[in-house]
Amino acid sequence: MSTSTNHIGRKISRIRELRDMKQEALAQALGTNQQAISIMENSETIEEAKLIAVAEALGVTPEAIKNFSEESAINYFNNIHDNNFTNSNGAIAQNHSCTFNPLDKLMEVIEENKKLYERLLQSEKEKIAYLEKLIK
């Protein structure tokens, strides 16, 4: 489906799909029903007030809907991919920036578990001693 034309309904439909939103969700956000959204997405033009409400529900500007094209969306996502996920050699970049050493955190958890186990073991020993005392 090409959105290079000025068919506002198709553009709304495409943006909604890219935002992983169903017609029912958009209808609920606009206080209408799914059938009204379907009719709107099949309309070539939409009144400005409704366009503003739809844009707000989709989290975009009315201009973004008016100027939307598949090509610009593809370029946008390709640029994000190129800038964030690959380094200058084309290899996938690791964007992890831990502020702590994960192994240190793991050792802390192990030590904490060991202390809890020792406390539990001591508690069980005290319980056994108390029960033995009661039996005698």
From TrEMBL:
InterPro entries the record matches: Cro/C1-type_HTH, Lambda_DNA-bd_dom_sf
Which GO-annotated molecular functions does the record name? DNA binding
HTH cro/C1-type domain residues are 12-65
Name-wise, this protein is XRE family transcriptional regulator
Annotated source species: Flavobacterium cerinum
